[in-house]
């Protein structure tokens, strides 16, 4: 159990340590803390492979307990999120080096990751909800990091939209307690809850994961520093929603047919709406944000389908999307950092001066598109096949069309930014740290696609 608690506590301890450290050491404190968080999350994963589950439980009242679980779902999400956050922190060493209030960035980044770790290991719904709201406060502060008027408006919008969803989710938690008499997940397994309670919980989930009709806040969050947007899209914030969906409706409650149909319909339409919006957008961060909305639709779709392997496919998709989307956002950050623009109409010819960034972009884009043998190909293919196998034909066709949209908008971005005539000056690549991180993410998206049996076997053992 010590590894589990250290995974949660180390980011918070690192955040406190940053406040008392000399200015020049603060970035390295953050990197070290996140590196240790990943190491201990990985240790917890290996323990879970041997023991199946770690569990700590301490009752406080009938509705609140300090309960943490280190089951397969939790340890996998913790390992993926902490690994991507660790790489983002290395990238940030250069990106944030000339930024005012950099110490504040690292402080909130560590609290953000610590809140994510606390949430994924929480085994009580109220405890989970507390960490859920902590992530909302962190994202609000980080989205408005630059303190400009438009940044503050975007941060306020993100907080208000997700707060409305969280309030509805809290109402659902209250209904669960009224009907079941407990909020401990261990005692809720196998329970059936009302459609109203399930829909209220779903409202909170889709608001955090930016699914229809709560998707509008996520593209506006691109005003934040690039490491923040990468955290939001790939490591922490929007992944919380799909994790809680998997926790509640994949591993805990029995969902009714009507609820499942609703979740499938929402995710299917979101795939198309997000993809279509990305096709006509010219801001590179907004294109990638709409892409996240669409790709999370795939994850929620497969998690909504009642099948024995839905959870494995969904978590494989989480891994593929986390790696590749972090890479794409960090590539976008390099472009913005070197050219001072995010507008595709002002970009062009960057392949000549930034070939390594272009290569990393393509590796990550191919995974998000779902081209074989990249990692993203396998869960996307299995999601589409599973949709048709379970007679969800509308969802299957939406997923196919969404895949074509993904190809078009990501290759359009590459064509306008990296090919053609030179519209902006970028004399050289970014620093080795920044380029090394995006190449690592791209390479892993390719390598794990070839070795896809490795993560699949780990997931199968963790979820037995």
Description:
With 464 residues, this protein is an all-alpha fold. It has a domain at 256-464. It has 19 helices and 2 strands. The chain has a two-stranded antiparallel sheet. Strand 1 and strand 2 (65-69) form a beta hairpin.
Task: Describe the structure in brief.
The protein has 19 helices and two strands.
Protein topology:
Blueprint: H1 2-20, H2 26-51, E1 55-59, E2 65-69, H3 72-95, H4 102-121, H5 125-143, H6 149-180, H7 185-188, H8 195-208, H9 217-220, H10 226-235, H11 237-250, H12 257-280, H13 284-304, H14 310-339, H15 355-369, H16 377-389, H17 393-418, H18 432-450, H19 453-462
Antiparallel strand pairs: 1-2
Helix pairs in contact: 1-2, 1-4, 2-3, 2-4, 3-4, 3-10, 3-14, 3-18, 4-5, 5-6, 6-8, 8-11, 10-14, 11-13, 12-13, 12-17, 13-14, 13-16, 13-17, 14-15, 14-16, 14-18, 14-19, 15-17, 15-18, 16-17
